[in-house]
Amino acid sequence: xxxxxxxxxxxxxxxxxxxxxxxxxxxxxxxxxxxxxxxxxxxxxxxxxxxxxxxxxxxxxxxxxxxxxxxxxxxxxxxxxxxxxxxxxxxxxxxxxxxxxxxxxxxxxxxxxxxxxxxxxxxxxxxxxxxxxxxxxxxxxxxxxxxxxxxxxxxxxxxxxxxxxxxxxxxxxxxxxxxxxxxxxxxxxxxxxxxxxxxxxxxxxxxxxxxxxxxx
Length: 216
Fold this sequence. Notes:
Layout: E1 6-11, H1 18-29, E2 32-35, H2 48-51, H3 64-75, E3 80-86, E4 91-99, E5 104-108, H4 116-119, E6 124-129, H5 132-146, H6 151-170, E7 179-182, H7 187-207, H8 211-214
Parallel strand pairs: 1-5, 1-6, 2-5, 6-7
Antiparallel strand pairs: 3-4
Helix pairs in contact: 1-7, 5-6
């Protein structure tokens, strides 16, 4: 295993297909996946009714300091203890989960390309683009199935904060992407385009290694 791990970052609006792409990339590269949804800040200090009114679609609700610290640790080939978030209660649980770095780690989430300190750690930056209609349908299915939400509450939240915050904070980060893929296109095409950039970056890095290091 190399001294420094290669990081692929995937951003895009909620429901665009970030996790789907990350899963297929991970299978192709035997990579680990780190979802930024783990890093929502703990709201246990607030009454339950106030937690539900928090804007969960703005970047400040994520513990970006911990994100950068743990992603940097992974890049340096360190094992990290990942936080576990309970979306039903909007709290961070006491338990953690271990993530040991693979040769490639895929970081995916709304704001993967938002913070400069996180972007600079990434070898390949990807943006998954998709229209609002499809994003809402996908988010509704996920939140009802996985996060204990009602269909009506998902639609209300999407109109109130998800879509507006995406246009303010998420969609503009497409300018930082090395690769832009459609969340509605064949998954194989998206995977191939990301892999092509990854392979070029790795080949370029090897070409610029000192002669003695390249022979090890």
